[in-house]
Amino acid sequence: MPELRKDPVSDRWVIISTERGKRPADFKVEKEAEKTGFCPFCEGNEDKTPREIISIRKPGTLPDKPGWLVRVTANKFPALIIEGDVNRKGQGMLDMMSGIGAHEVIVETPEHVMHLGDMPVEQIEKVLWAYKQRLIDLEKDKRFRYILVFKNYGSQAGASLAHPHSQLIATPITPRYVKMELTNSRLYFQQKERCIFCDLKEQELGSGERIISENEYYVAFCPFASRFPFEIWLLPRKHYAGFQELPDEERSQLAIMMKDTLSRLKVTLNNPPYNYVLHTAPNPTPRAGRPDYWGTIGYDYHWHIEIIPRLTMMAGFEWGSGLYINPTSPEQAAKFLRDAIV
Amino acid sequence: MPELRKDPVSDRWVIISTERGKRPADFKVEKEAEKTGFCPFCEGNEDKTPREIISIRKPGTLPDKPGWLVRVTANKFPALIIEGDVNRKGQGMLDMMSGIGAHEVIVETPEHVMHLGDMPVEQIEKVLWAYKQRLIDLEKDKRFRYILVFKNYGSQAGASLAHPHSQLIATPITPRYVKMELTNSRLYFQQKERCIFCDLKEQELGSGERIISENEYYVAFCPFASRFPFEIWLLPRKHYAGFQELPDEERSQLAIMMKDTLSRLKVTLNNPPYNYVLHTAPNPTPRAGRPDYWGTIGYDYHWHIEIIPRLTMMAGFEWGSGLYINPTSPEQAAKFLRDAIV
Lengths: 342, 342
Description:
The structure is a homodimer of 342-residue chains. Chain A has one domain (3-24, 38-83, 96-339): HIT-like (HIT family, subunit A), CATH 3.30.428. In chain A, 24% of the residues lie in helices and 23% in strands. With 342 residues, the first copy, chain A, is an alpha+beta fold. In chain A, helix 1 packs across helix 4. The first copy, chain A, is built from six helices and 15 strands. Strand 6 (94-98) of chain A pairs antiparallel with strand 1 (3-6) of chain B, so a sheet runs across the interface.
């Protein structure tokens, strides 16, 4: 019997089509065609990208020269542009705004081919450091309401370059999905004086059937109303609204969990294309240390990372309804991921 | 300069990346691999599908035998199942419902290979007739809140069988995207005592820059805040909330417009994969003829068909934000489609 399930955070229903009960081997993952030719993200080609914004470098090396370990630059083909004011205007009943924003690339390693799950923990830490620094810097820009950090791995997941990289886009509006999560988290807090994610985490840890792995600071699980087969949420156990709050001493634990989770995904599903998205509070992010923390918009949010392997196709039904049909229950998916040998 | 634009109906912002300004030839459309082998939708294989629900047949032929021109059956692998009650239950903070619904297939023609734009108008009329009959029948089922009719064309658009067919899924909830459109249409009506789609149609006809084609009863245009390159909306000029209201005498005009629009898409973009979705009022649909018409939920809605060619990839940014980056402005897209020779 199929089930309709509702995600408590986004208020989104999904159809869990248990009969179909697709197992990992039922998903065909096409082998990525090897991309040869010039790569602007490889060491030595620093002059082929916009100038470097921040980096971690070997001692004695210069910006925009070889010797970096992680490197952030503006996107050469930005979806939104950084210079200008946010002008709002109407045209009859239609509304528009100038396309102001930041679009940056975080090159994760000088190595051209490298799965994040195969990187040394220290390298992943550097990537996470870069995310945090860019969020802290960009949230100061009063024009931006939100900063979305994401990664596309594999051409089927929208990556146009194979070299390991993440991106971020800062927008002058709070994006639609983010707004829904914020609204529902706030509503929940108003009713209960508790964070919806903290409660969800407790319930998931209690039942255990959707848990993939956990350590002292983080927990990874397949959400109850997973839109996609093998969807994973990675959540800090402590309540932090914004990723900017991530204490330096917890960063290595997060890197360990990301490595573990993405390795499990790679092993279980034969190196599938995937996206991950950092879901964090909007700007300006409330900080736990601030005296006004529990009274600021967004304090009732809880940052987390959502990982989506790209195994199924969006079709007319999903486009028209926003209702997803997931052929693998999260309980099954979690078991496969839990049992993976990494 | 890129632009942020908001769709007035769904309240959805999109990024129109005018710099990228992708033209039809910039989109690579892969040629569909020819699928040989057994087809359960071909004439003579009627016993390989569930029994026929309705059909249009040559005189003297029998149900579930050859001789049909359009044929509707249940989906052999339904996402939701028809038998049972809609049971709602909670599990701690999580909510679920039994997966009750209808999932049907409308086989559009006995011919195995046929683009809808190449069908005779009379054949398309038969398909539209079938949509209407199934909506009228299924809306009587009190368990269903909504019926979504859609078509997937091409494997990249999610079609698993090449034989021309549409599908419908009736759900015990009003899907998320539908609900947003209904909420906004209602809000607009409450403010203005006018239908938002009627106003939008007038503004589009007035400016003309996004219009593709029109006839006495219908208008096709690229919406101002198109999520996807070459997205098309096909709207009746008269106000009808539900597709069930479509008068028989207007059906041929709609068939002509569908043929015209889909042919333009095929010619302009080299036969791309596409989805279309019928957006109609929820159950029970208010009818213009009924005395309570202008006081019923959904009367302020206006049915239309949304056509989405599948030319771009959803990536991490879209999954995380719900904000789409469209590399072709609707004004450019409409011009290409308008100029297409069909």
